[in-house]
Amino acid sequence: MKIVVDDKIPYIREKLALLADDVVYMGGGDMTADDVRDADALVVRTRTRCDRQLLEGSRVQLVATATIGYDHIDTQYLGQAGISWINCPGCNAGSVAQYVECALLLLACEQGLRLEASTLGIVGCGHVGSKVKTVAQRLGMRVLVCDPPLGCADFVGMEQIARESDVITFHVPLTRYGEFATWHMADEAFFQGLTREPYIINTSRGEVVDNNALLTALQEGRVKDAVIDVWEHEPQLNLELLQRVFIGTPHIAGYSADGKVNADNMVIDALCQHFGLPHPGKISAPPLPADFQDTGSSLDYYNPIEDSQKLKENPSKFEFLRNNYPLRREKLHN
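^ thats the sequence. predicted structure below, dont judge the formating
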């Protein structure tokens, strides 16, 4: 059995070696049809476009993406070709919630945002958004949630989010068509409709927020400031927007070791189930450094300012910073 794997997926190699006698690691953006032609399975991230061009004529039976999002997978083609696929819903939800919590704490510390007197508008309340809701309530914030596909009675519309929120955070998948398309859902018209000069946080997909419209809204004062982890046209960023935002990071909000291990284990489970293989056991996250000090603040575990400074100083290293991300653990809350 042969598995082709994105070489930047951590912690998984030992277990994959127990499942297959031929495991090939390579850059996710470098995979070609020749590379995967004789593979039985692919384990990828967002940088591998899994479509007809890559997979036609191959013997691939399963594509497993170690990510929540799957807009890089042509699910229609895979269905037609009889190729199974899985993503890892919720795997890094805790990591993204940690990122948002730390961003909120920094907005409070450095920009004077009074969390207990502020309203957080959450757009998308799935695995990630629901955890962000818990975080915000723990911080004493009033919370509004908009998620039309879920249709819960206590959810509100985008108009109310735009009208009443002091901070607006996006946690939706990227969809381009249909009734609930999210491509450029935060566009010029959305920013024109804001009334409280809110902070904008985007950790979903870059194309959910029109980056040019956001820059204009920042310049015109309709948005107070922004925390942006995902960008249109990654890794080619709008450099003016990068330098303008309070925090700008290289698509790493979900990159805690805990989130990566969750994804690894979901991938291993899928491989074993699909191919009828004996399970090699669960992967565990590496421990915190011996000199780690927990003073009680979530910022002890993660401070996104550090990632932001690295990216702003070297925007051309966007992919390097993603692919060589240091150990980060999540803080457990009782």
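The longest strand covers residues 2-6.
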